[in-house]
């Protein structure tokens, strides 16, 4: 099992687009078959640097790569590219 964890820091004044992006990610569940689980949320701690986090699981790296290049994911990710200041990610095997 591969866990894919991503955190973003967004530009000020882009809360509406951020929520559209995060809801778009949630909407991929059931559409992209290789997603085993997906959680996404907004950081409630104002002392921290990052605004939102994604945690999802895939059976293997091939499935993660399939998700990353799926046109439905690419369309949602395009929203993020317009508003993100910073992105960090880690993938690990359980």
Overall description:
The chain is of the alpha+beta class and 94 residues long. It is 36% helix and 34% strand. It has 3 helices and 4 strands, in the order E-H-E-E-H-H-E. The chain has helices spanning 15-26, 61-69, 71-83, and strands spanning 2-10, 37-42, 52-58, 84-93. Strands 2-3-1-4 form a 4-stranded antiparallel β-sheet. Helix 1 (15-26) packs antiparallel against helix 3. The longest helix is centred in the C-terminal third of the chain and has 13 residues, at 71-83. The protein starts with a strand and ends with a strand.
**Helix/strand order, N-terminal first:** EHEEHHE
* Contiguous helical run count: 3
Low-pLDDT stretches are none
What's the total number of strands?
4
Query: What is the residue-mean pLDDT, rounded to a whole number?
Result: 97
Class from secondary-structure proportions: alpha+beta
What spatial order of strands do you see in the largest sheet? 2-3-1-4
Shape: globular
Measured by DSSP, the beta-strand proportion falls in: 25-35%
Radius of gyration: 13 Å
Q: Give the CA-CA distance, first to last residue.
A: 5 Å
Let me know the largest β-sheet: 4 strands, antiparallel
How much helicity do the residues have?
Answer: 25-40%
């Amino acid at each position: 099992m591969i866990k894919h964890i991503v955190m973003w820091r967004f530009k000020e004044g882009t809360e509406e687009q951020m929520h559209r992006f995060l809801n778009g990610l949630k909407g991929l569940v059931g559409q992209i078959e290789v997603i085993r689980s997906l959680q996404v949320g907004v950081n409630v701690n104002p002392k921290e640097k990052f605004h939102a986090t994604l945690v999802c699981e895939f059976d293997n790296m091939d499935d993660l790569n399939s998700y990353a290049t799926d046109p439905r994911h690419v369309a949602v990710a395009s929203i993020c590219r317009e508003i993100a200041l910073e992105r960090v990610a880690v993938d690990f095997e359980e």
